[in-house]
Amino acid sequence: MLNLDIVKWPDDVAGAYRAAGLWRGGNLADAVDDHAATRPDAVAVRGPDTDLTHVDLTYGDLVDHARTTGANLVAAGLRAGDRVLVQVANTWRFVPLLLACLRRGVVPVMCLTGHRERELTHLADLTRARAILVTADVRGVDHLALARRVVAGSCLEQALDIDDVVPRAGSSARAVTEGGAGHGPGGEDPAVLLLSGGTGGLPKAICRTHDDYGYNARTAAGVCGVSRSTVYLAVLPLGHNFPLACPGILGVLGAGGTVVVSPSPRPEVCFELVRRYGVTMTALVPTVAQRWLDHVGQDPASRGDLDSLRLLQVGGSRLADSVARRIGPELGCALQQVFGMAEGLINMTRLDDPDDVVTRTQGRPMSGHDELRILDEDGAAVADGAPGLLLTRGPYTPRGYVNAAAYNREAFTPDGWFRTGDVVRRRRDGNLVVEGRDKDIINRGGEKISAEDVEDLAYRCPAVLHAAAVAVPDASLGERVCLAVVPREGRTVTLEDIHTEMRAAGAARTKYPDKLHVVDAFPLTGVGKIDKKALRLRFAPTREEERSTP
Ligand code: OOB
């Protein structure tokens, strides 16, 4: 009925997770309904609306809004099992939309606002989605027009505007009932489709079930001490695993706390929200944490805005030890490092860990049921303290990507271990240090870009004979996209030529190379492959260049 190739956990493993009480069989939205029943007037979601008025939704309001939203989805022809691409701005509306989808079994595919025709068309066809739902205007981009173009060129049937689906704040919608007999979706049914950081071309979809994602959110909430009094500021793009469920929106609402949605990661915006709403916890990528530190450095009085902030989670890319050490003293809150992935496994430092662990490691698995292996290139376990490739399995790490049988044979071992592509070292105390990676991606400020996709796009430029995209270190973003090309005989290639082709192909702006190197030939490895390690070294900026990049 679902018409998707989803790899399930083996029956015996699933049975063990159920028997151990890790998988509970319900719907991810159940906890929110329970809070609405017992504490309807507690504040669930708040923050500035698109017109900058401030919105407050109690648990009672939130459930009402989710019900009406669900009815609107049904009225638009969407049914349990249907997929919907969701490309929306960070506002409170995301939350009732998410709950409505969960309740109705409509499966959101969590796109980024930076995605353009190329990515959206691919994701629509990959997940056989029926609709795309957007915020009509995000920072001046007409997403409804974009969505309509994607509908015209893909299997999608319609484009919906979130403003037409989620009722206005303040409107009462108590009359709408859920409708539909029998039990709703839950348990091993798909809850959301997350996107992979993407090796091997365009993004892959990861199916997270109500069981596994519920366990993910609850476990993260437990490690972070989330309670009813938690006020969580959602800063990162809401469809990303980190703000969604680590513990994020789902973990905080599950515990009866309050979610404040920020429209932007800018310190000027976030500090004001922290002060106004007494935010106690948030999650950032390292580049944003750095901007917050710089802000306090330039305007020391602004630190007072953060008085209520207790916990700052930082993850998504490697946090430099030197920056980690500054967070406690300069922002006045505890740091937690998070090394996670949309594919499942989440590592966290703990709230009572010594400074040495919090500032110098990326933590350890959040669940005692996570299985880890750290292997050398021949597949043998490395000694503790030595770097190796990280593989994992566990109760919230799915066994394959959606509709990707061939790719799954590379990314997963026959017995279900996921090859993360990360190179880590396990310290004697069990904490991991991320040393690098073995996968061909560029981690640009926490956003993962597939080198292969950048190369595919570069090859559209007729003057390009060979192309290789590599990450180069960057002081503000961590990494930037650097493209090296060998032009065809007698031809020239400029950065502008590459950007023009990428624009014409409808590619996300983040993939546009920041730097182009035109070379006569590529260095090759012993087996004749392009030696990307050598290219990376060759193009690494000098310290001076790194400092002067905007
Ligand atoms: C998070 O998820 P994704 O799917 O966007 O990216 C996963 C990849 C990891 O495999 C690793 O290469 C990198 O991002 N990464 C880190 C890191 N956290 C993620 N590399 C070094 N240090 C870290 N702390 O990025 C994500 C998902 C949930 C929670 C947090 C991050």
Automatic annotation (TrEMBL):
<dbReference type="InterPro" id="IPR042099">
    <property type="entry name" value="ANL_N_sf"/>
</dbReference>
<keyword id="KW-0436">Ligase</keyword>
<dbReference type="Pfam" id="PF13193">
    <property type="entry name" value="AMP-binding_C"/>
</dbReference>
<dbReference type="Pfam" id="PF00501">
    <property type="entry name" value="AMP-binding"/>
</dbReference>
<feature type="domain" description="AMP-binding enzyme C-terminal">
    <location>
        <begin position="454"/>
        <end position="529"/>
    </location>
</feature>
<dbReference type="InterPro" id="IPR000873">
    <property type="entry name" value="AMP-dep_synth/lig_dom"/>
</dbReference>
<dbReference type="InterPro" id="IPR045851">
    <property type="entry name" value="AMP-bd_C_sf"/>
</dbReference>
<protein>
    <submittedName>
        <fullName>(2,3-dihydroxybenzoyl)adenylate synthase</fullName>
    </submittedName>
</protein>
<comment type="similarity">
    <text>Belongs to the ATP-dependent AMP-binding enzyme family.</text>
</comment>
<feature type="domain" description="AMP-dependent synthetase/ligase">
    <location>
        <begin position="33"/>
        <end position="401"/>
    </location>
</feature>
<dbReference type="InterPro" id="IPR025110">
    <property type="entry name" value="AMP-bd_C"/>
</dbReference>
